[in-house]
Amino acid sequence: MPINLFDTRTMLAMLDQKLPARTFLLDTFFSRTEISNTAYVDIDIIKGKRKMAPFVNAKAEGQLVERDGMTTSSFAPPYLKPKWATSAADILKRAAGQSIYGGNASPMAKAAEQMVKDLDEMDQIITRREEWMAAQALNTGSIDVVGEGVNATIDFSMKASHKITLTGGDLWSAASTSKPLEDLRAWRDRVGQSSGIVPNVAVFGSDVINAFLANDQVKDQLNTRRVDLGVIDPQFLAEQGVVYYGHVKDVGLDIYGYTEWYDIDGTEYPMVPADKILLGSTGARTARHYGAIQDLEFPGGASVRLFPKSWVEKDPSVQMLLGQSAPLVVPHQIDAFASIKAV
Question: What confidence score (pLDDT) does residue 338 get?
């Protein structure tokens, strides 16, 4: 409504409802960071077999043992270039929470304050893209890189046997016939056999955790075998945006529910699909890789996660702010993870 100049008014403190970027998946499964100044990142992988020493007669000659082969995986980190423009008209406007009359900051001070806010948003949206990469890699075994002038898929070759879909009475939503605890043990053993690394964390989508807690088998065993099975004692970890439901000793897993979303064209989607379980190990070899910054003004030989730069366009007069980053979240030991559609 229009302001009446003769009314007395008080400006209350500004309410900033920007949503922080959560990094639970990055922090849990991709804690290692590697920054380089090259366009590609490579890793040599040796996959061993569970061989045993051969029996021979003591007087016979020794048996040759075949060495394990090596493969090299090469990845090109995709490029991010978010940009902001601040015009003179933007600076002359009243900022959120600023008094209508008197005491206003100078245009230069307001421009500097706006740049600080834009730099913070730059870091937030790049971080959210990295968390999305982690979610896609764990859920599908690949990352679709689609944007202006780019359309590619980075495939980490997750085994088909690690992409599991339950059907019929096996779905956890079938409370009386499904057996979640037996399923979790079987999936844990499958991943352990494939990778040699036993999973210790299960991240449940919202529908999965509801079905799990409502399941007859789970309720019966939690009530009768609490000491042996484990304890479900939900704790909300606000900074990470997750609920820790507890450690289930019977299957050796910490159970989490993740409440984070991302936006595409005005529609929000959960980082972990509501009907999915992401099963994995915090001990697997993974990394957040950052490739070269492809900018002639970037200091030669330097390696950074994010390179911001600013300049002024003279006509029309606009202050530009550009951020550049080349992140790629890589589960090098992809066999240590599994994705399950459980409901």
Answer: 97
Q: Specify the CATH number for the domain of residue 258.
A: 3.30.1930.10
Nearest to 272 by CA among 209, 196, 194: 209
Phi, psi for residue 46 in degrees, rounded to 5: -110, 115
Burial 278-302 (b: 16+ CB within 10 A, else e): bbbbbebbbbbbbbbbeeeeeeeee
Mean pLDDT split into 10-residue runs, the chain, 343 residues: 52 54 94 86 64 73 69 80 87 59 65 86 94 96 90 90 96 93 95 93 95 86 51 67 86 91 93 97 93 86 86 87 93 94 97
The letter for the amino acid at 83 is K
Note whether residue 5 is domain-resident.
no
- Does 331 sit behind a cis peptide bond, omega within 30 degrees of 0 on the bond before it? no
What's the CA gap between 184 and 8, in Å, rounded?
Answer: 64
**13 in a structural domain:** no
Q: Which two tokens stand for residue 244?
A: 């820790």
Dist. CA 7–CA 12, nearest whole Å:
16
Among 143, 69, 157, which Cα is nearest to 335's?
157
